[in-house]
Amino acid sequence: MIVMFLAPGFEEVEALAPLDLLRRAGLEVVTVAIREAKTNKLIDKLGRIGVSAANLWDDPRTVTGAHGITVTADVTEAALPGRLARASLEAVILPGGMPGTTNLDASPVVEKTLELAAAKDAYLCAICAAPLVLGKRGYLAGKRATCFPGFEEYLAGATVGGKVIRDGKIITAAGMGVAQEFGFEMISALVSPEKAGEIRAAIQSL
What we know:
The chain is an alpha/beta fold and 206 residues long. It has a single domain (2-202), classed as Rossmann fold, CATH 3.40.50.880. It is built from 8 helices and 11 strands. The protein has a 7-stranded mixed sheet, with helices on both faces. Strands 3-4 form a two-stranded antiparallel sheet. It has a two-stranded parallel sheet with strand order 8-9. The chain starts with a strand and ends with a helix. Mean pLDDT is 92; it is low at 41-47 and 51-56.
């Protein structure tokens, strides 16, 4: 199973283009709705005074991206542990965008899932600003990686440069313009280069 996190303010193309390609390749990708840190704090406060927050949102799986596009994730962050308990974790994907990346960075669910992925030697994949989430936690130390220009300082210990970079079990990409290539690189790693080439030809990619 591949986990893709969607946090409020995510860059829509960076999530949906790779998601489409990965599913065309026959891979199981589960999208997970992450709440803003301030929303989780509100839920915690309500819970401590015995008030249910269940009816405050129409569907806790809906997430609105950086450009106002709302999508429905497969599961909520609360449901993710159950899914992980029943499947083998192959990869974690972090789309970029702002404030989506900030919300990913603040999420304990994202942090715990990255720890699990690293322990299982699964792929850690991030695009645009989101490699900062990996960099701040030391996952990029000694690796080649890339990110959106201006976020290099967060890629601690990495050699930074390029558009789409795979180094071992780390795959990073520079931004929305290479979202499709990011998807192909993940297919190459998780299935085969031949499968990536097959899908590239089928969609008339240059």
